[in-house]
Amino acid sequence: MPLDKQIAGVLQQFRDIPEPDFSQVDAAQYRQFSDNLLPAIPGDPMSEVRDLRVAGADGELDARLYRPSDEPDLPLLVFFHGGGFLMGNLDTHDNLCRSLARQTGAVVVSVAYRLAPEHPFPAAPLDCYAATCWLVEQAAELGIDGRRLALAGDSAGGNLALAVSRLAVQRQWPKVRHQCLFYPVTDAACDSPSFDDFADGYLLSAGMMRWFWQQYLQEGGQADDPLASPLRAESLDGFPPTTLITAEFDPLRDEGEAFAQALREAGVSVRVQRCEGMIHGFVSMAPFVERAAQVLSEAAIELRGALK
User: Fold this and answer.
1) Which of 4, 94, 225, 250 is catalytic?
2) Active-site choice (110, 155, 165, 192)
3) Which of 93, 119, 178, 280 is catalytic?
4) Which of the residues 56, 64, 66, 247 could staple to 127 if both were Cys, CB 3.0 to 4.6 A apart?
């Protein structure tokens, strides 16, 4: 299919912004530029939104809690933002988290894990697992039902949700009911056909993604670690039921769909959906892209059902 008309309009707005020379770019400067690229969009009203501090693997982390209603003991959805492991924050994904909270009926907690290259792998996955455990442990105090736990993330955040699921299986705690992955990063190889087909011109470029990996992995052999490249795991037994969304015009499309197939082969219940006409990052465009809003609602319905 051709690009969705509304997505094509988004790309037109970015046409005159040149991609930097990633052999020269400074990660901290690029982070500041990227995180302020899109204007803040007012999100859904919540019963409560508050910032809090949660436990990470090596100290406390910032997090933001979204409570959609005053009903007691709502389920918990822990969200991990995308940004190539080195960008993104609580504000860049505020609107998406509000939408997820409203549509799932769950308390969403967005976790600001440590970012590369200042904190390379495995800081981020260990932070995300530690924060998830802390939230379950503190569930009663937070007014949450920690027994009804799901994970969600977009792009690199989808990768981190998978890392939390893996550690939860290995350590037999906490129990994750469902994971929702939007165009997840699953393999450091960056060599699938979609990397060549959509290398440039669709917001996330192949060169950008390879640069992200260079910032994130700083020791030999880390690319083979399933916490970094979940597609390379020898076993996916015990993973929770999964919703996995890919975009047609996305370098990460093929590796996401390959991971969905690997989950199926491991006996995991999976719904995978390739969203035609869409690009990487499209779910965050739900306020102004109709198809993105529809896909987000469909994923939220599945999460709501899993958390009953």
Assistant:
1) 250
2) 155
3) 280
4) 56
What's the order of all strands across the beta sheet hosting 48-56? 48-56, 59-67, 107-112, 74-80, 144-154, 178-182, 242-249, 270-279
pTM greater than 0.85 (yes/no): yes
Among residues 194, 174, 197, the alpha carbon closest in space to that of 185 is found at: 194
Q: Is the preceding peptide bond at 174 cis, omega within 30 degrees of 0?
A: yes
pLDDT per residue over 199-214, tens digit each?
A: 999 999 999 999 999 9
Other Cβ atoms less than 10 A from the Cβ of 136: the count is: 21
Q: Is 280 a catalytic residue?
A: yes
Q: Name the amino acid, one letter, at 64.
A: R
Alpha-carbon distance 281 to 154, whole Å?
8
Domains of the chain by range and CATH? 5-306 (3.40.50.1820)
HEC profile of 214-254: HHHCCCCCHHHCCCCCHHHCCCCCCCCCEEEEEEEECCCHH
pLDDT tens column, 270-303: 999 999 999 999 999 999 999 999 999 999 999 9
Three-state DSSP at 70 gives coil
Is 250 marked active-site? Answer: yes
Task: Tell me the C-alpha distance between 194 and 260, whole Å.
Answer: 16
